[in-house]
């Protein structure tokens, strides 16, 4: 039930038809008696900078979830951003500070790292390879760096994109060993597919499977299918792994903490979500 005291969390993006967050957050709020609601709000890019500022003038606005195509453009509209957001170069959550300032953070990578840790894989001191240096790959790189990986290898066909991520990582984590250019997974403790490969039938595998050790932990970001061809292949080699939707559910507890709501577990969110 939405009342005059309900805290509004806008889910900002365009288009809105594929939005899943309301189907996860709102059942959780209802079950736990939290007077808040996530509302999809479609905003075209040309209107977004003005709309975001106006949105946070509402007296009952509490925060916003940011999705495509606004994650990058949001950065220039904020008063304060986390290191994760700065390294990622994008933001997917904004809240209103007590002084009226807009505070932004990025949780895509946090969700990934929480999933890895929950499965008992050590991140601190690990050597990790990320294929894909776009928005999601950059966010995962930021969170792995924050969690203390020793060596981070970045591969992206677009060398400019990969080098820009390297520069941001070096700026905020000068002690981190960062390399760019190779997708060879041999010798890595953690390997991540942060590319769109696997979304369409017939896509090539993002990484040479024959070079992955069975002891490597593998992460996937593609969510269109739980067990993608990439995960099928690494499972056959004996690798432990996490599916793409794990990143989604694992990051929501971090969002809840950011918005200063009672938090929960990814398993609980999966159990009560109404995704159909």
Architecture blueprint of SSEs:
Blueprint: E1 7-13, H1 22-31, E2 36-42, H2 48-55, E3 61-66, E4 80-81, H3 83-88, E5 93-96, E6 102-105, H4 108-118, E7 127-131, H5 135-146, E8 151-155, H6 159-172, E9 177-180, E10 190-193, E11 217-220, H7 229-236, E12 240-242, H8 244-258, H9 266-272
Description:
With 276 residues, the protein is α/β, with parallel strands linked by helices. Helices cover 33% and strands 20% of the residues. The chain contains nine helices and twelve strands. It has a six-stranded mixed β-sheet with strand order 2-1-3-5-6-4. Strand 11, helix 7 (229-236) and strand 12 form a beta-alpha-beta unit. Helix 4 (108-118) crosses helix 8 (244-258). The model has no long low-confidence stretch (mean pLDDT 95).
Oligomer: single chain
* Uncertain stretches of 5 or more adjacent residues: none
Helix content, binned percent:
25-40%
- Hey, roughly how much beta strand do the residues contain? 15-25%
Our measurement of the CA-to-CA distance between the termini, rounded to an integer number of angstroms, reads 21 Å
Radius of gyration, rounded? Answer: 19 Å
Taken in chain order, the helices and strands follow as EHEHEEHEEHEHEHEEEHEHH
Q: Provide mean pLDDT, rounded.
A: 95
Give the spatial strand order of the biggest sheet: 2-1-3-5-6-4
Q: How many strands, what sense, and barrel or not for the largest sheet?
A: 6 strands, mixed
